Amino acid sequence: TYETIQFARDGGVATLTLNRPQVMNALSSRMRAEICDAVSTLSGDVRCLVITGAGRGFCSGQDLTDRAAAADLEGTLRDEYEPMLRAIRACRAPVIAAVNGVAAGAGANLALAADVVIAAESATFIQAFARIGLVPDAGGTFIIPRAVGAARAMGMMLFAEPVTARQAADWGLIWDVLPDEAFTDGVAARARRLAEGPTAAYRAIREAVEASFGNSLDAQLALEARLQGQAGRSADFVEGVTAFLEKRPARFSGQ
Ligand code: T3D
């Protein structure tokens, strides 16, 4: 059982809730280990993972209460943050970050590591690091410039001010914004939708998009051909085409 997160199942959807609301779900060492464990041991019948926060915040980043004296940040990143982020990027199921409130520092970048980010209208994203004399980490300097370009990435990182959910969506940093009152139901509907989808194809889509930033066109076309070869041999492709021809919704197994 977990101390710092809650983990719940509802059909094919698993929800991981960061659960230290008294500190805006700040990331402790224990929380990183628990996230890593929950994400990397997902059972095969989970077909969508939602990560969200308890209370009014999503995640305030590194727990600063144990950082007053100089700490081994390099070691913490390598041994604790990296495995957590890699576990999310390697998750068998598509990952939705449901950003219910402020996402600051590594908390923002944890959200941005998800496949799809959906934020409540009142949520904000803060690259808070420079406020305390640090450098954005947890993948932020990789993901953010690719998503929004260097000018906006630098502005976010140097000024370290809140970017609203609406602004983040307009910039292409996140996928969607929902009104606060429609957030829970809207996220649940989207999670169910992904949980009924072609899970293996979703993984291949993630692989292709991720690889695209480092690939030449030739290499990317070759990767697409290989991944499509795989998808073309899947049960879900047969079902997708059959359902289309029979004019009915597809019933994907995720295989
Ligand atoms: O290993 C390493 O250290 C390297 C890795 C670094 C990664 C990082 O993430 S560095 C960046 C760390 N995070 C921050 O700098 C953000 C700090 N928090 C804030 O700026 C603000 O709290 C928020 C913008 C997130 C929210 O502001 P607000 O006004 O809505 O709430 P609040 O009153 O500031 O926070 C509520 C409580 O949570 C408060 O405690 P209190 O006064 O009720 O007892 C606050 O101290 C606590 N809290 C918020 N963030 C953290 C925290 N406690 C510990 N660590 C936090 N990160």
TrEMBL record:
GO MF annotations in UniProt: isomerase activity
Entries under InterPro entries matching the protein: ClpP/crotonase-like_dom_sf, Enoyl-CoA_hyd/isom_CS, Enoyl-CoA_hydra/iso, Enoyl-CoA_hydra_C
Signal peptide bounds: none
Domain of life: Bacteria
Keyword hit for Isomerase: yes
UniProt keyword annotation of Metal-binding present: no
PROSITE patterns per UniProt: ENOYL_COA_HYDRATASE
Any Pfam family: ECH_1
Sorted UniProt keywords: Isomerase
Record-stated family: Belongs to the enoyl-CoA hydratase/isomerase family.
Record-given protein name: 2-(1,2-epoxy-1,2-dihydrophenyl)acetyl-CoA isomerase
Organism field: Paracoccus sediminis
